[in-house]
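ok new one. same drill as before - structure tokens go in, u give me an amino acid for every spot. 214 of them this time. try not to just spam alanines like last time pls lmao
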């Protein structure tokens, strides 16, 4: 099994798939393709039909788009979704909400693990996104979080979906109140998250259009 991913400092969609694969206990190789440099597009297209990362290649089975990759991995490793049907539906709903929403947060606070942009990026729309994310985290922790530190207790695809938000909150100095704040701390302490962050810090490529507040 191989996962084709972009820069660990910047590629939030890559992080979601990679973390789900790590937490699911899969053994996989990585093909790392630095984004937005000459040749990137051709390299991605040689692996991924959408021309985007992440893309999973499981012995010739291609799965592109982080949401589909997560579902594919969860079919092989069911613990990546909650066992209870109500919790599972909620996990899928909050994952889908992340996948299709939060445009203001994405554009004004892009993932950029190496930077310290505390205090930057706030607009009324971004603050509304932050409030909604905090409410999701508090609600999931209160209703389903018993049994572990993650949104549904043990680690699921929902945590993978929100992992880049955790790095964003660290970079931009966003500290949610209450259980959401404890959840953020648990995610940032996750050993696979720390491995990803260490690799991001070791990268040398920069994407100027993502370094918004230099
Ligand atoms: N909805 C897709 C989004 C994938 C995506 O936008 N990937 C970006 C990197 S994070 C990419 O491949 N950009 C390269 C390009 O557009 O050339 C997913 O969830 O996988």
């Amino acid at each position: 099994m191989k996962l084709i991913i972009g820069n660990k400092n910047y590629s939030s969609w890559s992080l979601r798939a990679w973390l789900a694969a790590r937490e699911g206990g899969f053994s996989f190789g990585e093909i790392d393709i630095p984004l937005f440099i000459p040749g990137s597009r051709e390299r991605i297209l040689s692996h991924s039909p959408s021309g985007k990362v992440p893309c999973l290649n499981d012995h010739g089975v291609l799965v592109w788009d982080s949401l589909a990759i997560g579902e594919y991995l969860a079919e092989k490793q069911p613990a990546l979704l909650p066992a209870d049907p109500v919790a599972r539906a909620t996990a899928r709903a909050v994952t889908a909400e992340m996948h299709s929403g939060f445009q203001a947060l994405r554009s004004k606070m892009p993932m950029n693990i190496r930077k310290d942009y505390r205090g930057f990026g706030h607009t009324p729309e971004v603050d509304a996104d932050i409030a909604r994310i905090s409410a999701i985290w508090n609600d999931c922790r209160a209703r389903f979080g018993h049994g572990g530190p993650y949104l549904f207790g043990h680690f699921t695809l929902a945590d993978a979906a929100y992992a880049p938000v955790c790095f964003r909150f660290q970079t931009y100095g966003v500290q949610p109140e209450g259980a959401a704040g404890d959840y953020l701390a648990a995610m940032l302490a996750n050993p696979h998250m720390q491995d990803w962050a260490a690799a991001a810090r070791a990268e040398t490529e920069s994407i100027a259009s993502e370094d918004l507040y230099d």
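The two ends are 38 Å apart (CA to CA). and btw The chain has a mean pLDDT of 98.
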